[in-house]
Amino acid sequence: VHIFELSGVDDPKKFLAIFYKKSTMIAFAFILFISGFTPLPFNLLAIASGFVHFNFPLFVATALFTRGSRYFLLAYLFSKFGPKIQEQIEKKFTTFLVWVIGSFVVVIAGMYLFYIKFPHYFAA
């Protein structure tokens, strides 16, 4: 399969062995969480989840939480501000979510790099 060549792994079984490391599963769950809340193509990630044998109950729980949160947020905004906000949401909601999630990722990456650079601050 050609997609494995992009990741530098030529054997699908080797790819799955690398994927099953705990840190990689957590990263995939985080990507799933982000994808469920933003208007990114969720179907592609759902198919990828099945391919890598991602934990099905965790997948369902994450999908329900993220999609539900997104729709409740939109419903709240529509009930609070009415139809006049619909145009603003259609134009700017995706941009807003990308900025918020991008900022969150930058903060998490910064915290991780700080942890790597100064591990003695976190020693018990």
What does this molecule look like?
- α3 runs parallel beside α5 (56-81).
- By secondary structure, this protein is mainly alpha-helical.
- It has one domain.
- The protein contains 6 helices and no strands.
- It comes from Candidatus Fonsibacter lacus.
- This is DedA family protein.
- The chain crosses the membrane at residues 23-42, 54-73, 93-115.
Count of extended strands: 0
Order of helices and strands: HHHHHH
Taken from the alpha-carbon principal axes, the silhouette is globular
> Helix fraction?
over 70%
Strand proportion: under 5%
The major sheet is characterized as: none
Helix tally equals: 6
Number of domains: 1
Which structural class do the helices and strands define? mainly alpha
Cα gyration radius (Å): 18 Å
Transmembrane segments: 23-42, 54-73, 93-115
Protein name: DedA family protein
Keywords: Membrane, Transmembrane, Transmembrane helix
Organism: Candidatus Fonsibacter lacus
Features:
124 residues, mainly alpha, single chain, 0% strand, globular, 6 helices
Layout of SSEs?
Elements: H1 2-6, H2 12-19, H3 22-37, H4 42-51, H5 56-81, H6 86-117
Helix pairs in contact: 3-5
